[in-house]
Amino acid sequence: MEMTGPAYFTAFKNFAFTRTPTGVLTLRFQTEGGPATFTGQMHSDLPRALYEIGNDRQNKVLILTGTGDRFMTEIDGQSLDDPSKPAVWDKTTAEGRRIMQRLVDLEMPIVAAVNGPASVHSEYVLLADIVITADTTVFSDFPHLTFGIVPGDGRPERVPRGFRRTGDSLTRWDAARPGDAVAGHRTPAIAGHAARKGQPGGRHVGCELCPIA
Question: What are the distances in angstroms from CA 113 to CA 7, 110, 116, 158, 209?
């Protein structure tokens, strides 16, 4: 792994970056070194981080993952701006659209190493080309439906129908679509499996939820 890197590697306090010599970049969501709590700052920083990732030609594959035993399950409501104010909501929705659009526009495969429950912004990992799950992974969408917001930050078609409409939680089996291959693995092994599957030229790029050999 690279010990040093471009300036954006250390520019965002909630994202930890590492990159292999072959260009496999890992973006790990975190809060003070532990599991990530979603904040307004994270919502503002993520589209900027994705812009930097996309412009860095040294990046060949992107791995998205969380910290510890979960991808993301907590949200700091106090850190979010008041959505009842039109100017605030315009900014928030613009950021959300940029996140989703920049994810799908990245000119590299995305591997999601979902290291446990994903109930806050699970759409980020569900957009990946390959989704590798821990055996504890459950997908849901707590914040959007709770606050009366359309799930998916502008890309609801990639959110499983079950919790797009009802807010239900889905296991990795429920979230799979016909033809997807699904496997669950112990959380500590997820990152290593994702790195192997994400090697440039790997034969698994392009599938949805992949088993780990």
Answer: 24, 10, 9, 17, 10
pLDDT in tens, 28-73: 999 999 999 999 999 999 999 999 999 999 999 999 999 999 999 9
158, 155, 32, 137 alpha-carbon torsion, rounded to 10°: -10
Are the beta carbons of 19 and 28 closer than 8 angstroms?
no
2 classed as catalytic: no
pLDDT tens digits, one per residue of 129-163: 888 888 888 888 776 666 666 655 555 555 555 45
Q: Which residue of the set 32, 123, 157, 208 is catalytic?
A: 123
If you classify domain 7-197 with CATH, what class do you get? alpha beta
